[in-house]
Amino acid sequence: MAKAPVIEEAQLRHMLKVAAVSGESPVRNVALLTTIYGTGMMPTELARMPLHAFLNSDNTVREKSCVAAEIAFNGKERPLYWSNDKVVTAIKAFSMALLPDNGLTNT
């Protein structure tokens, strides 16, 4: 059986640098890559994830949420922890670029 490919830290840094300077929406691209690699989510799961899975009603970042069964690639709900600082920072940056008056800060 073939081994699954492994992306080294240097390769990920390079991908993020390229994403940050290319495409129509570099901030979005960095947020997508950072979130996918930081959480293990599939791209289709992330695309279907509602904003309230990341933010509380007062626009603070949740510590824990879940990938709902209807979103999950395997049809099973699983926990999702927003504890990775790089992921949270990237999503906040994208949210601030998308909706400047959303109440989020970079801190």
From TrEMBL:
Name of the protein this chain belongs to: Site-specific recombinase XerD
Organism ancestry: Bacteria, Pseudomonadati, Pseudomonadota, Betaproteobacteria, Burkholderiales
